[in-house]
Amino acid sequence: MVKGIYAAARTLEKNNKLINIIANNLANMNSIGFKKDSTFSHIIDSYNIPQLSEYTDYTQGELEQTSNPLDLALKGKVFFALQDDNGEIYFTRNGKFTISENGYIVNGDGLKLLGKNGPINTNDNFFNNNEKIQINKNGNIKIGDIDVDSLLVVKFENDDQLTKVGADNYKITYGSYLIAEDSDFEVQQGYLENSNVNAIEEMENMIKVSKDFESAQKVMNYIDNIMEKATEIGKV
């Protein structure tokens, strides 16, 4: 009887975690560059309940044309590098950038986009001369005829080196990043990468998990009622 309660409780715990993951995926289905989270089962315990581990699915999202020269999308399993005012490095697939008052290319959080020579600054060329910014597929940046820098596009040996910070950014948990080779990626100027969340697939998963959750709840209530009656009989 106790084994049954434990098994049902672990199933509830597992399904609650799955529901939270699915809900977060659905909430970010329109977030630029968002990568959905998934789970895999491993290590069966003594009660034959699978344990869940969470991981991020870095599958490429569809590219959408915006024609905004400061919108950038990446093809390949690589990331843009960003830096905050304290020198902390972050990584992202969200390529929606603007120019700050100081001339830096920044994301929506104000983090500076990194080039191979450090934070990329337009040196007032973008504003004063009304020049067009051009970024080719290799990440080389030009404003008018002036070479500014090249994007620092990075890759990682292992997926678990990264931890999500919010919906858009990642921080490295161990090891270091590698500078991507030209053959590893392609920069698309005037495009943004949509999230890789499939709404229909996530809704189907939500329905299935919700049904499993309800079934486990019924089992727990049933066992609880039986134990309560057994206790009353014991008192008699």
User: Number of DSSP strands?
Assistant: 19
What structural class do the secondary elements suggest?
A: alpha+beta
Total count of domains? 2
Content of β-strand: 25-35%
Structure report:
The protein has 236 residues and is of the alpha+beta class. The protein has two domains: 2-58 and 197-235, no CATH class; 63-193, no CATH class. Helix content is 28%, strand content 30%. It has three helices and 19 strands. Strand 1 and strand 2 (51-56) form a beta hairpin.
Task: Outline the fold blueprint.
Layout: H1 2-27, E1 37-42, E2 51-56, E3 63-65, E4 72-75, E5 79-83, E6 89-92, E7 98-99, E8 105-106, E9 112-115, E10 118-119, H2 125-128, E11 133-135, E12 140-143, E13 146-150, E14 153-155, E15 162-165, E16 169-172, E17 178-179, E18 186-189, E19 191-193, H3 199-235
Helix pairs in contact: 1-3
Keyword list:
single chain, 8-stranded antiparallel beta sheet, 2 domains, 19 strands, 236 residues
Give a quick summary of the entry:
This protein has 236 residues and is an alpha+beta fold. The protein has two domains: 2-58 and 197-235, no CATH class; 63-193, no CATH class. 28% of the residues lie in helices and 30% in strands.
